[in-house]
Amino acid sequence: MSIPTTAALDLSLEAAALTAALCDIPSVSGNETALADAVEASLTTVPHLQVLREGDAVVARTQLGRTERVVVAGHIDTVPVAGNLPTRREGDVLIGRGTVDMKGGVAVALRLAAHVARPARDVTYVFYDHEEVEAERNGLGRVLREHPDWLLADFAVLMEPTATAVEGGCNGTMRIRVTTRGRAAHSARWWKGVNAVHEAGHLIDRLRAYEPAEVDIDGLVYREGLQAVAISGGIAGNVVPDRCDVDVNFRFAPSRTVEDAEEHLRQIFDGYDVDVLDAAPGARPGLGEPAAADFVRAVGGQARAKLGWTDVARFTGLGVPAVNYGPGDPSLAHADDERLDVGQLEVCESAMRRWLGEGRDRGDCGLRG
Amino acid sequence: MSIPTTAALDLSLEAAALTAALCDIPSVSGNETALADAVEASLTTVPHLQVLREGDAVVARTQLGRTERVVVAGHIDTVPVAGNLPTRREGDVLIGRGTVDMKGGVAVALRLAAHVARPARDVTYVFYDHEEVEAERNGLGRVLREHPDWLLADFAVLMEPTATAVEGGCNGTMRIRVTTRGRAAHSARWWKGVNAVHEAGHLIDRLRAYEPAEVDIDGLVYREGLQAVAISGGIAGNVVPDRCDVDVNFRFAPSRTVEDAEEHLRQIFDGYDVDVLDAAPGARPGLGEPAAADFVRAVGGQARAKLGWTDVARFTGLGVPAVNYGPGDPSLAHADDERLDVGQLEVCESAMRRWLGEGRDRGDCGLRG
User: Fold this and answer.
1) What are the Cα distances from residue B365, in Å, to B72, B117, B127?
2) Is B150:B63 a contact under the CB 8 Å cutoff?
3) Is the ipTM of this complex over 0.85?
4) Is the Cβ pair A240, B246 closer than 8 Å?
5) From residue A30, how far is each of A34, A75, A85, A309, B236 by CA, in Å?
6) pTM for this prediction
7) CA–CA distance, A39 with A41 (Å, rounded to integer)
8) Cβ B249–A187 below 8 Å, yes or no?
9) Strand B93-95 versus strand B88-90 pairing type
10) How far is B1 from chain A (nearest CA, A)?
């Protein structure tokens, strides 16, 4: 365990004030240490928690010997600040980087960790780094590799912003590069060549004609999508291009495996060179599992499909059902005007408390709750 | 006049050997000084020529007081060497960088300069640098700016490769950037955005549907063309692109002005942002002018339209009719297997001699011809 160099957070603050305090320690991916130190320092003072550290990820867990263990997780990094820190409060709205994605969720998780001393289920709280960057740097992935035993659980909740709806599973994602080939020629004698950019027009026709599916799994609808995300071609201002690369992102329902997705794309782009750039499997919602069903019942409302790829897929990849559930409008994540309706913090915290329940030896750690 | 630091060329060599000697002094654009020095040194020994120098351009002219003056010009630079130097000879073929574009033509011009001492028309020979690069560095353009009086003439022949056909005038060229706009969104929620690359598919449809004209001027046919030469778009692998730039090169007959060409393109791409990147006017063939008609008669054969933009347009821009005429298959210019049928050197030289004629005070400078 490292020696904290930052003042501990005051976990007796109400959730909105704690969210603001978390945001006001900037933690853009790669610069999470100060915030991880603060989180660790504050949790270490909580008597009912065992606290572990792995890089800039902090894990804290109850050890009550319950028959069930659940994970409550959130990432502590943010995308770059856009002149929107420190946070400011306008009425019921807290404005600034991280308020939605996802220090509001982290604030709720920290308050649960501090104040729910005797949950009916043992809880492992995970606060991790590097979620907003390349998958191989992801802090949750690193903890899973280095200390798989830390994350053993029956169910997991990622407190990503969902505007307090339960979002189950997630779509998979695959990026491919589709290449058209032509024959270079001087543009003054263009008929000697074959224009690969013009040929890319045919390829884009296929993209435009594609009708993405909506797939129902466990009552949740996963909407697929097939979008060009980049295009490049050209040799010189007077040369017919002999090659054009179109990068395509396929978001696919968890009913497809990565292999299914690749096969599907190769059919769509039959006749062109196709290279897979990267891929991540989707996650089935798993809402039929008892722990998940309990969660949906406890927090209420109608569960829906998660469309973006999130770290829930890391848990479902391990056979652990997982959902997203947290405060904040997800469409404001990463936005320059990122802002949180603080009422959602209370909705979330109450729902999570209902679900975690209190064991027979009811009590809390003595902090003001 | 600079002090030549290179041995003079032997202008008594027959044209194929002289072409090889010229090629074997590499002169990729920007590195023409050694060759310019050699050209200058060799012409300075010819008693009937006045020799001038401007940077790496060498100008040599007869001063016989003829009623007509013509320019015979060629560039001495080449595109980069592709492992194809020194030249080698296989039977009637000379192989290597510059053999076609255009040291074969330069060799013929140098031989004419040295051996036609009393032409019926005064002749200004121009050997210039930086033709294969951006127009603003072009050596002919620089001489025109710095010493416009050096190039006064009634007619000009550029000895660019035409396979010994007279090519009159040239197409104009314009490059534009056409931009499609969309709205960025996360690719997992693609329906919140508008994909600018998909929109570029519509733009490419217009390019593919375009039917370029063939325009008859003075009996020569100018084939137009409209080609995408570059495309780029994309923000990140998980973002719907909000912008796509397509660079388009329009090659237009000299019946259109630059302004006409721009207006035409703005109509074709109506609804998109269009920016003109660069443009150069075409040149009408001007074969109705007496000096040009004489030239076509003297060299024989059927004149045809020049399709690429060449420096003839610099002369026609001054009101001086100009044609391309020279040895070498133009489709081999810049090719890695650039190679010259040396028989074309003799055809060219004979034809040029017929046209230049010999004045009453016939004779030559005493070199072996």
Assistant:
1) 19, 6, 20
2) no
3) no
4) no
5) 11, 12, 18, 21, 19
6) 0.74
7) 6
8) yes
9) antiparallel
10) 36
